[in-house]
Design goal:
With 417 residues, the chain is α+β, with helices and mostly antiparallel strands. The strands form two sheets. The protein has a five-stranded mixed beta sheet. The two termini are 39 Å apart. The chain contains 17 helices and seven strands. It has two domains: 180 residues, no CATH class; 219 residues, 60s Ribosomal Protein L30, Chain: A. Helix 16 links the parallel strand 5 and strand 6. Helix 4 crosses helix 7.
């Protein structure tokens, strides 16, 4: 897949744009962010489902995208006629149901939800159309990319929104399931319990945010058996875990209880962030507000790392985030903008399963990608470096269980001066 339409939409719906929407609507910024994050996959899901059922869809998108700058999105502006036509074609009589469900999910009014559907549709559909026009995309390649997105959309929908209640119950092969179940299917059942994100150590701990897309259990078990039998070291697929980490492993997946974490609201001097309780964001804010940060030397800061706990990459990639990964990145941007003097360095790590050179290369590319994303979001000057350490600091034996090796698989950040 050459382009991720979800990421494309998020380029236009940045934290600052979300903040503007919040002010215009008089709604909580966290609620607005939740609604927008829900609408994007809903719009894309309907686009995938209806791509061959709307006459001239591709041409309409390209024409609209070519005419839009998308630099002045506002909930107070009139909705372009093209967006209303596309929205009616995609959702039909299900529009009000979607608006209501997202309103209930995000805690905002139905009127605000309706306006956010309009601007999110404009950003998503206009952004896709502009990309198609700028890159001379053909209708065939457009349809192909839409097909590639079908398998990803369940993981993009926020937990708590049911596919069937949104009118998308048939999109993923007729599965009528709550999105919470869809998210469970994308993470390894051998997940280790949540680990405190702050670590103090003499040298940067490793761990990489590893990745893996759901593969049917029986195929994964067979592949793991064959790899163990014929290979001593292989660069194996990675499974996204509930802590935002990945797994390079030859282990067969075992059906064990899944450890889940619950979102809460983190207060940043009046700004509400949706994040895991006692997670990365909370630890960062507490540290920044403490005298330990103000008085720390560079050498002391080198020994204190914070683990990302909600960053996941699409299986087999180093540049495609899935699930709520963008939420944590956006939270990080808000924190850094609140403390413009703060600087960070990103570290990415792997366990010692697989080829050491490839592990190093993978971790470096993922660290570089996060730095690039933060630069796009306007805080690049505060990111002093990004380094992939691979398995250099791994301490758990290659022969250990996947659950034990999870301690070595992290993506982290530390402050610097």
């Amino acid at each position: 897949m050459s382009v991720n339409f979800f990421d494309l939409a998020k380029e236009y719906l940045t934290p600052s744009v979300i903040s503007n929407f919040s002010s215009e609507l008089g709604e909580n910024e966290s609620g607005v962010s939740k609604a927008v994050s829900a609408f994007i996959p809903i719009i894309l899901g309907s686009l995938v489902e209806k791509n061959q059922g709307i006459s001239g869809l591709f041409h309409t998108l390209k024409t609209f995208g070519a005419s839009r700058g998308l630099n002045s999105l506002s909930t107070t502006s009139n909705v372009p006629d093209t967006i209303n036509e596309l929205k009616n074609g995609l959702f039909g009589g299900n529009v009000q149901n979607i608006i209501t469900k997202v309103s209930e999910f995000s805690g905002i009014s139905t009127n605000s939800s309706a306006k956010l559907l309009d601007v999110t549709s404009e950003a998503t559909l206009g952004g896709i159309g502009k990309y198609a026009e700028d890159h001379n995309m053909t209708e065939a390649s457009f349809m192909s990319i839409l097909g590639d997105h079908k398998s990803l959309l369940a993981s993009f929908l926020p937990a708590g929104l049911g596919l069937s209640t949104l009118g998308l119950g048939n999109l993923f092969g007729g599965a009528k399931k709550n999105v919470t179940a869809a998210v469970k299917e994308t993470i390894t059942p051998k997940a280790k319990p949540y680990v405190e994100p702050v670590r103090v150590h003499e040298e940067p701990e490793k761990g990489s945010s590893m990745w893996k897309w759901l593969i049917p259990l029986i195929l994964l078990a067979l592949a793991g058996f064959l790899l163990l039998k014929y290979c001593n070291k292989v660069d194996t697929p990675v499974v996204a875990t509930p802590t935002g980490q990945d797994s390079m492993t030859n282990d067969t997946m075992v059906d064990e209880p899944i450890v889940e974490k619950t979102y809460g609201e983190i207060d940043l001097e009046g700004i509400k962030l949706k994040a895991f309780a006692n997670g990365l964001e909370s630890k960062m804010i507490d540290f920044l507000q403490s005298p330990n940060y103000a008085n720390a030397t560079e050498d002391q800061l080198k020994d204190q790392w914070f683990d990302f706990d909600n960053i996941n990459f699409e299986f087999g990639t180093t540049d495609k985030l899935i699930g709520d990964s963008h939420l944590q990145l956006e939270n990080l941007v808000v924190i850094l903008k609140k403390y413009p003097e703060a600087k960070i360095k990103i570290g990415a790590y792997t366990d010692n399963v697989g080829d050491a050179v490839k592990n190093k290369e993978l971790s470096q590319k993922r660290a570089d990608y996060l730095k690039a994303e933060l630069t796009k979001l306007g805080v690049g000057a505060q990111v002093t470096g990004a380094e992939g350490y691979g398995e250099e600091f791994a301490t758990v034996a290659e022969t250990a269980s996947d659950e034990e090796r999870a301690a070595d698989r992290k993506m982290s950040l530390r402050f610097s001066k």
